[in-house]
């Protein structure tokens, strides 16, 4: 019988209490005060931008929208949560969910957002707080050693966290299926976005990141940020990179589809990138070097470019000449959790930096895989004019079939992204099938 989510959360918190106690003892600290954060306002305005709480605060509570609140962690004591919940007829005051963590905490619903008084001892305060406030509290202000140690506590997910990520994926995939139907029905980018939000049951400000909904050439803008309100005359392609947040945990899924007016060469590219991604996922297991996986993606992209007639050189030459990097400038993936680009992806267990290879500066994950890590696997292949233009005058340009590439320019590109947990004996794809 599967453990209930409440039971999983209790075990998650027990492990978190033990991990914090160990870290704080090693750093000679008596406790740490975590601040959820304050929503920002637009310059010269009173309207607030979208808010997400500090990741380490969410690690305990899962509350992404709980602002101006404080959590005191002191080994040997119940976690103390001070929730900013003033009487207010303009806004609904903060409320806590009916979840297992609430009964484990000492909770104060407060009208003010001042930090709680700290007991005698040596404490740290983490979060977006002024250094002057930390000084008044006589607490260390965002000490790097503590931040890195707690980041490391988040790189391997508990069973509870993986259950939350799986649920986030379930909701996100419902959105992707609705987005595809809206696209095939002739919808504009805005229509597709609205269909996604409706099917995934979330408002836009609750998204873990701004959804990317790119029709035609817009699919080649990696973080395309607009939603056209009119459908294009011809529908060559759609790329949707969109997620969901469940109890603080983020899904991050991308799908690409060919439209009714797509060039015949485009659908085979989608199939090729999808097959490539499946092969990359099959290699995920403890001990695998993610940088090596990323390099393997480029070798496989070279093979795909050659197979589809976009280049006339060997796959090895396509990699060494920089052709594959022009067709795919981003990394294979990243760590995923309470943040979409989750923490500790570019450092080792001791908190030392693990920078990406010089040739692949965009790679966000440079670690060896361990059981409990959750990563995205998102190879892509795009026609991005500004990246391909320099190759026209270079020696590598002679190996590119430019007429074929230009036929695909108004299709943007392809990205296929799943969220995968590394297990003790392999991997578990958290993203549902189509």
Task: Describe the secondary-structure layout.
Layout: H1 5-26, E1 31-35, H2 55-61, E2 70-73, E3 80-84, E4 106-110, E5 123-126, H3 131-137, E6 139-141, H4 144-155, H5 159-184, H6 189-200, E7 212-215, E8 237-246, E9 249-258, H7 266-282, H8 290-307, H9 315-320, H10 323-327, E10 374-377, E11 380-382, H11 385-392, H12 402-407, E12 413-415, E13 418-423, E14 426-429
Parallel strand pairs: 1-5, 3-4, 5-6
Antiparallel strand pairs: 1-2, 2-3, 7-8, 8-9, 10-13, 11-12, 13-14
Helix pairs in contact: 1-4, 1-5, 5-6, 7-8
Shape, per Cα inertia axes: globular
From the alpha-carbon coordinates, what is the Rg to the nearest angstrom? 23 Å
Please identify which CATH superfamily of the largest domain we are dealing with: Creatinase/methionine aminopeptidase superfamily
Quote the beta fraction. 15-25%
Task: Characterise this structure.
It is built from twelve helices and 14 strands. The protein has 434 residues and is an alpha+beta fold. The chain has two domains: 150 residues, Creatinase/prolidase N-terminal domain (Creatine Amidinohydrolase, Chain A, domain 1), CATH 3.40.350; 271 residues, Creatine Amidinohydrolase, CATH 3.90.230.10. A six-stranded mixed β-sheet has the order 4-3-2-1-5-6. A three-stranded antiparallel β-sheet has the order 7-8-9. A three-stranded antiparallel β-sheet has the order 10-13-14. α5 packs antiparallel against α6. It is globular and about 70 Å long. The two termini are 27 Å apart. 44% of the residues are buried. It comes from Halomonas aquatica. Keywords: Dipeptidase, Hydrolase, Manganese, Metal-binding, Metalloprotease, Protease.
């Amino acid at each position: 019988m599967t453990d209930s989510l409440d039971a999983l959360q209790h075990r998650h918190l027990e492990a978190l209490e033990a991990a914090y106690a160990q870290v704080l003892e090693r750093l000679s600290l008596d406790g740490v005060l975590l601040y959820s954060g304050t929503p920002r306002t637009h310059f010269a305005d009173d309207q607030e931008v979208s808010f997400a709480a500090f990741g380490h605060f969410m690690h305990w509570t899962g509350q992404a929208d709980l602002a101006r609140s404080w959590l005191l962690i002191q080994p040997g004591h119940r976690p103390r949560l001070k929730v900013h919940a003033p009487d207010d007829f303009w806004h609904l005051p903060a409320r806590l969910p009916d979840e297992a963590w609430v009964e484990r905490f000492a909770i104060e619903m407060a009208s003010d957002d001042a930090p709680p008084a700290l007991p005698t001892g040596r404490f740290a305060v983490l979060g977006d707080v002024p250094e002057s406030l930390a000084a008044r509290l006589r607490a260390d202000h965002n000490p790097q050693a503590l931040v890195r140690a707690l980041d490391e506590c988040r790189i391997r997910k508990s069973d509870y966290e993986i259950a939350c990520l799986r649920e986030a994926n379930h909701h996100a995939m419902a959105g992707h299926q609705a987005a595809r139907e809206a696209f095939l029905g002739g919808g504009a980018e805005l229509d597709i976005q609205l269909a996604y939000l409706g099917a995934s049951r979330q408002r836009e400000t609750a998204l873990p990141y701004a959804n990317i909904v790119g029709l035609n050439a817009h699919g080649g803008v990696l973080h395309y940020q607009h939603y056209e309100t009119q459908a294009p005359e011809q529908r060559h392609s759609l790329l949707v990179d969109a997620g969901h947040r469940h109890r603080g945990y983020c899904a991050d899924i991308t799908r690409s589809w060919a439209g009714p007016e797509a060039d015949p060469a485009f659908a085979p590219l989608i199939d090729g990138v999808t097959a490539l991604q499946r092969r990359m996922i099959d290699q995920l297991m403890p001990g695998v070097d993610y940088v090596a996986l990323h390099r393997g993606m480029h070798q496989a992209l070279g093979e795909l470019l050659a197979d589809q007639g976009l280049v006339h050189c060997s796959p090895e030459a396509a990699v060494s000449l920089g052709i594959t990097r022009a067709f795919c400038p981003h990394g294979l993936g990243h760590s995923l959790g309470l943040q979409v680009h989750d923490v500790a992806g570019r450092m080792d267990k001791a908190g030392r930096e693990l920078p990406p290879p010089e040739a692949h500066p965009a790679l966000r994950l440079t670690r060896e895989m361990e059981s409990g890590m959750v990563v995205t696997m998102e190879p892509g292949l795009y026609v991005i004019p500004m990246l391909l233009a320099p190759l026209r005058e270079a020696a590598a340009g002679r190996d590119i079939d430019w007429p074929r590439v230009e036929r695909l320019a108004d299709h943007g590109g392809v990205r296929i992204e799943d969220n995968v947990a590394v297990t003790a004996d392999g991997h578990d794809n958290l993203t549902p099938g189509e």
